[in-house]
Amino acid sequence: MIQHNKNCCHKLSQSQYGAVAIEFAMLFLLFFGLFYALVNYALVMLMQSAFVHAAEEGARAAIAIDRLAYANNQAYLSAGVDPRVRAVVGDSLDWLPAKPKDKVLGAGNSQVQLSMNGNQLTVRVVYPSYASDPLMPMLTLPVIGQIPKVPVDLAGTAVIEL
Fold first, then answer.
1. H or E element: which one contains 113?
2. Total-model pTM
3. In the chain, N or C: fewer CB atoms in 10 Å?
4. Is 37 exposed, middle or buried (0-12, 13-18, 19+ CB in 10 A)?
5. How far is it, in rounded angstroms, from Cα 116 to Cα 119?
C-alpha cells in the first residue's frame, strides 16, 4: 500500500514540472522587467540631477567674473561669462561617456545654452532626443509596453541674478 502511494505521488510531481517552468518564465519576465525599469529610471534620474548640478555650477561660476574688468556688457558676457560658464559646465560633466558627452556638450561645450534677460542669466544643459537615443536600450514587454517611459529631452536649468 505504501509503495502504491509513492508511485502515485511520483507521477503527480513529474507532471508538474512543465507548470513550474511556465510559472517561472512568467515571473522571470515580470521581475526582469521591473529590475530593468528600476536600473533605467535610476540612470535617467542620475543624468537629470547631473545636468541640474552642472547648470547650477556654471551659473555660480558667472558670479566670480568681475563686470568692471570689461569695457561694456557685451564684452562682459561674450569674453567673460560665456567661456567661464561653458568651461565649468564641461568640467562638471566630464565623467560622461564620449557619445552622450558629445551630444550634451558639443564641441567646445557649444551646446550649453546661455541666455541673458536683463541681469538674469539662465544656464541650460540638455540631452536632446533622449527618448529616441537613450544610454540603455528601451525594453518592450507584452502587456506592459515600453520600459522605461522617459521624457523626450533630459535637461537641467539654473537661473541666477548677476
1. strand 113-117
2. 0.80
3. N
4. middle
5. 7
Block residue for cell numbers 521591473: 34
The H or E element spanning position 32 is helix 17-63
pLDDT at res. 153:
92
CA 58 and chain centroid, separation: 19
Cell for 147? 520600459
Residue whose entry in the numeric block shows the C-alpha cell 560665456: 82
Looking at residue 77, the DSSP 8-state letter turns out to be I
Q: Quote the CA–CA distance of 68 and 76 in Å, as a whole number.
A: 8
Which amino acid, one-letter code, is at 23? E
Task: Find the largest Cα–Cα distance for the chain.
Answer: 106
What torsion, rounded to 10 degrees, do the Cα atoms 8, 11, 16, 17 define? 150
pLDDT tens per residue, range 71-86? 998 999 999 999 999 9
